[in-house]
Amino acid sequence: MTESPRIRPYRREDRPALDDICVRTAHNGQDSRPHYTDPTVFPDTFAAPYVHLEPELAFVLDDGTGRAVGYIVGAADTVRFAKEFRAAWLPLVADRHPEPSGPPATPDETIARLLHHPERMIVPELAEWPAHLHIDLLPDWQGRGHGRQLMRTLLEALRDGGVPAVHLVMATANKPARGFYDRMGFTEIEVPMDDSVVCLGRTTHDLDGL
């Protein structure tokens, strides 16, 4: 019997679904497959390392049949995560997505460069927001309150773990996502980043409005 959709902790068998969700939402919230030769570079950079390194901070939206149709993943300490990413994750996927020898010449190489430089996540101006997160839902599951539930679940887990605040980096072009984050109580943080992205943050307390 099919159950109602629900938020639950990530399970190892969810990994293929998470990879698929990431690929289908990675291009400014849209499907990345028409734009990248090997779009698996996205989950290998922005989803899989989180469930590998910090599975306790990974939650999925289950459609009621056991299938994940959305997820949120996080890192409680970004500095520590970046170090573990290089030491324990990058060796597993580096050969699959080689680092470009010069300036990235293709969209795939642009993301591969990010994969090979996890230290990019360490930004001194973000020290007051030590955690960070990524959230994605398949299009048919957006706008129905599930993203809010996922966000609250992760924020509660971070708060209960003693983490005071969290940040995220998003593509400036992804206007619907910015509207969602605004409603979730995130505000812009001034950091020295390219104009193509914006950094947002919020505390993990005062969750009553979510």
UniProtKB/TrEMBL annotation:
UniProt cross-references to PROSITE patterns, sorted A to Z? GNAT
Name the SUPFAM superfamilies for this protein: Acyl-CoA N-acyltransferases (Nat)
Task: Name the Gene3D superfamilies on file.
Answer: 3.40.630.30
Cited InterPro entries: Acyl_CoA_acyltransferase, Glycosyl_Hydrolase_84, GNAT_dom
Q: One Pfam family this chain carries?
A: Acetyltransf_1
N-acetyltransferase domain boundaries:
5-205
- Name the chain's protein: GNAT family N-acetyltransferase
Protein source organism? Streptomyces edwardsiae
